[in-house]
Amino acid sequence: xxxxxxxxxxxxxxxxxxxxxxxxxxxxxxxxxxxxxxxxxxxxxxxxxxxxxxxxxxxxxxxxxxxxxxxxxxxxxxxxxxxxxxxxxxxxxxxxxxxxxxxxxxxxxxxxxxxxxxxxxxxxxxxxxxxxxxxxxxxxxxxxxxxxxxxxxxxxxxxxxxxxxxxxxxxxxxxxxxxxxxxxxxxxxxxxxxxxxxxxxxxxxxxxxxxxxxxxxxxxxxxxxxxxxxxxxxxxxxxxxxxxxxxxxxxxxxxxxxxxxxxxxxxxxxxxxxxxxxxxxxxxxxxxxxxxxxxxxxxxxxxxxxxxxxxxxxxxxxxxxxxxxxxxxxxxxxxxxxxxxxxxxxxxxxxxxxxxxxxxxxxxxxxxxxxxxx
Length: 374
Prior knowledge:
- It is a single chain.
- With 374 residues, this protein is of the alpha/beta class.
- It folds into three domains: 4-108, no CATH class; 120-244 and 346-368, Creatininase (Rossmann fold, 3-Layer(aba) Sandwich), CATH 3.40.50; 251-343, no CATH class.
- Helices cover 35% and strands 12% of the residues.
- It has helices spanning 13-17, 35-41, 67-83, 145-160, 190-206, 219-235, 251-260, 273-282, 337-368, and strands at 4-7, 25-28, 47-50, 89-94, 105-108, 126-131, 165-167, 211-216, 240-243, 268-270, 329-330.
- The strands form three sheets. Strands 1-3-2-4-5 form a five-stranded parallel β-sheet, with helices on both faces. Strands 7-6-8-9 form a four-stranded parallel β-sheet, with helices on both faces. A two-stranded antiparallel ribbon has the order 10-11.
- Helix 3 packs antiparallel against helix 5 (190-206), helix 4 packs across helix 8 (273-282) and helix 4 (145-160) crosses helix 9.
- The N and C termini lie far apart (70 Å).
- The model has no long low-confidence stretch (mean pLDDT 94).
């Protein structure tokens, strides 16, 4: 029986809200599954929702973390869907992987590992670790917005300086503490997120890698990645691991935003002029510009306001519902492909500069330290 495979993360959140709650949803661990066989196993449903695949982490993935750490992430993600009312949610796992009994799992044979992981010959490179997210982006942009953008920036950086950097596959899930406000938004959970990425760095350090750059495409994950970097620095003083807040937020990026933006302060935050422009440059078919609703009525005070490069001394986490009715922060209607291509180019240049700086930090710190006693 023919069936439709629905890429869940290519939908907008109103489209997710309208999905039937008995629609089977599967979260694949890796790639290469036979979805026709899956449909038959599920009893021949007319549609199956396909969530973004986890690229690594499970035992046998090529970049393993302790199974309880991985299962905590998976349990939270599937729990998000159950909380949203979906009745049939499953992890789609290789046939030889046994997960905890409380994690609904469908085991199927998969093809050999299809993701590209750094090899031992990349040990002297900065390992770029792009982390996106699957969450609402207003009425007009897909749930995959953050993932698509940081994947393009990370790959563009590695391609620009292949002798200096190598890139992990993008991870499509991060932190959204406002998850319940808008359908289609996931939340790994802060502790599970930190434990997972610390374990990933553990595994890479164990294989001899020494330089890491954690790249977030989603603002909600940034503070948690700072914690990961601090844990890593304490645990491995002989390596260098860094992160930063999103992209286009240093001097070069800030200048690029000012050079082309048309919106005032408040026009760049989420599903905004910037993110909409970048997706128009990367996957224009996923943007529904006619549905864009501009929202810039953030509850702003001198020390707390919203724009891409956030200002003010206060750090807080109020409910999103206070500031946005549609899930957008900013002026998505002003997005254009031309601006997106320009900002993507500068974002890659900014990250290339950071790669070179990480190498310099690593080299100069090693030179400064006394020689080990024999």
